[in-house]
Amino acid sequence: xxxxxxxxxxxxxxxxxxxxxxxxxxxxxxxxxxxxxxxxxxxxxxxxxxxxxxxxxxxxxxxxxxxxxxxxxxxxxxxxxxxxxxxxxxxxxxxxxxxxxxxxxxxxxxxxxxxxxxxxxxxxxxxxxxxxxxxxxxxxxxxxxxxxxxxxxxxxxxxxxxxx
Length: 164
Known about the structure:
Elements (H helix, E strand, L loop, with lengths): L1 E4 L5 E6 L8 H11 L3 H21 L6 H5 L12 E10 L7 E9 L7 E6 L3 E6 L17 E3 L8 E2 L4
Parallel strand pairs: 2-3
Antiparallel strand pairs: 1-2, 3-4, 4-5, 5-6, 7-8
């Protein structure tokens, strides 16, 4: 089923309800919190996605080929022109983690193989930006640093929650 997502200007995005139990109040609250986010929230989150793009571009020598293929975002918020949301869902937290994580998978022009994964803790706070790997948090992915939103290859591009 597709649902309108205000974060992406009311784009209709496929909702994967495989693990979603509408009778359970916690995932329902996470989904409702996410659906309350707007395009203003997306613009505020731009720096994390832009950091992913810049880190990837530098790692693969993108200035030699990628800029010509996809163009180059002039400002961090321009990155969204290169992102194509495809699926939305909810993951429960792992052992000892009572949170629910709303995730969004997207295709993106700069990383065609792994795409883009955005994750919001309890639907309200962006807590992870990465290629799609199925992990709701960076801590769950094994780096032990839950405050990190984008864990970069080049540490200059690592972003954290609450930093501007």
